[in-house]
Amino acid sequence: MQLKKISQVFGFAALFFLVFSFPPQSFSAGKMNKISNTSQSPSTNRQWTEDEDMLIYFEAVTKISKNALSRPRHEDIVKNSIKSYLKTLDPFSDYLDSSEYALFRKFQKNDYTGLGMEIEKNSSDQIICIPYPGSNAEKAGIEFGDVIEKIDGSDVSNKSLLTIASMIRGEEGSRIDLVVSNKKGRQKKIRARRSAIESNSVESDYKNGIQIIKISRFAIDTQRTLKYEIEDLEKSQPVVIDLRDNPGGDLHSAIDCAMLFLDKGKSIVTIKKVSETKPYKSLKNSTHRKIPVFLWQNDKTASAAEVFIAALTQNGRAESIGKKTYGKGTVQDIIELSNGSAILLTSGYLQTPDGSRYHEKGLEPFHPVKQKKPGTTHYMKMVTKLLKKNKSDSRKDEVTRIDVPISSDDIDKDDIDKDIKSDDAWFICFDKYFNTEVDARYMALNVVKSLNKPDGPFVFQARENNEISYFVCLGPYGTKVLAEEKIQEISEKMNISMFMRKGKDIVEAPEDQIEN
Fold this sequence. Notes:
Elements: E1 2-8, E2 17-18, E3 31-35, H1 52-67, H2 74-89, E4 94-96, H3 98-106, E5 112-113, E6 117-121, E7 127-131, H4 136-140, E8 147-151, E9 154-155, H5 161-168, E10 170-171, E11 175-181, E12 187-193, E13 202-207, E14 210-215, H6 222-230, E15 239-242, H7 251-259, E16 267-273, E17 277-281, E18 293-297, H8 304-313, E19 319-322, E20 330-336, E21 342-351, E22 367-368, H9 376-400, H10 418-421, E23 426-430, H11 437-451, E24 458-464, E25 467-477, H12 480-494, E26 498-502
Parallel strand pairs: 3-20, 14-15, 15-18, 18-19, 19-22
Antiparallel strand pairs: 1-24, 2-6, 4-21, 5-10, 6-7, 7-8, 8-9, 8-11, 11-12, 13-14, 16-17, 16-21, 20-21, 23-25, 23-26, 24-25
């Protein structure tokens, strides 16, 4: 095996409800799980009576029901108290009584459809519309960020998000009237018809000889269609994946799409809950690892689309271009209770491969587009600029590239930086190999961004059986002990395994250093 130093890189570092005819498991672009009722009713399980606080609550409900002027029912007091408490947790958690939950389940059948949009409850308890491009919602005049105020004459204030989703759904072809207000507070009346959303979520076009694949949402068919679109691309042929205005869709579809570009074992997303952490990783090696990928994003790119972007960019597989994304990454569970009611509970966050949360923060692009409302032309200019830079860097590497064996007997002492080759100097390296130097540089740039002024990073080239690969290392560190401390800290933060390498085994090629 032969190894050499190539360069040191400095620089930059929901719940959504699909209100159309998808089955319940496709309801959230973040994630929503249904937890079946496994608890016993209070009449058969009296353990709660051993809890003094529960006894006080029961006593208070009884006293209120007996002595209040309005003589409220026990069930109304319990419902309202649970709803009020859940609202103090976050905007998404809620309680549905048995009739509300029964209505919700009824309208999840495939016989019922919606308008082709997602809805979200914000911190002000407003219901935000996120229509899909080309959907009946958009055609009827609903815009991204519009707030729903009434549905068929009924005020939606204080209603749960699941209840409102059920109100929007109905028989295909049936009419629905909504009153919404835009970001300026101006009201408008919307009349639309419910219909099943078209299954095709992927469209392809060419501009300046570059294929642009538009993913409008992540649906059941998205991975299959995306795979078809890229399977004939040559290894060095760039592709743009346009995720602008993509509000999310099905989380698992986004995970499957990310696997098309990532090698086996690479982190895609992690669901972090109080009781458990569930990572999702790529299941097999990608056959498209050499295709240069550019991702287009804007402030309407959300949820599952953000998962896809983070998976590719933070694994050094793509460069993102555009504006900061929307920032939607929570996990909700539907927990059924013994009396037929249910709790909608926010139970966790979606974490990107580097372990960070993007909820309410969004994802910054690697390459921001400065225009306030950039169009496709502005995005294409950035792609062209980056392709020219990468091609220039590639030509420079071919001129300066050298091959030096790592065996200490063959090392030319004059070509090695004393600090790097010192027996006491150590590097810690990410256990991730790339077929091209450009891909490794993307990884290095992401490391800089994620770790905030790390030591390095360096990109190294390794040769084995005439096969060349590239990997990223941090350092050098003066002692093995220090390197061991760093490897534990960084591998946990980046959620990726690492290994150590002695400085004396690394040969530097000074001409290859990148200027930034």
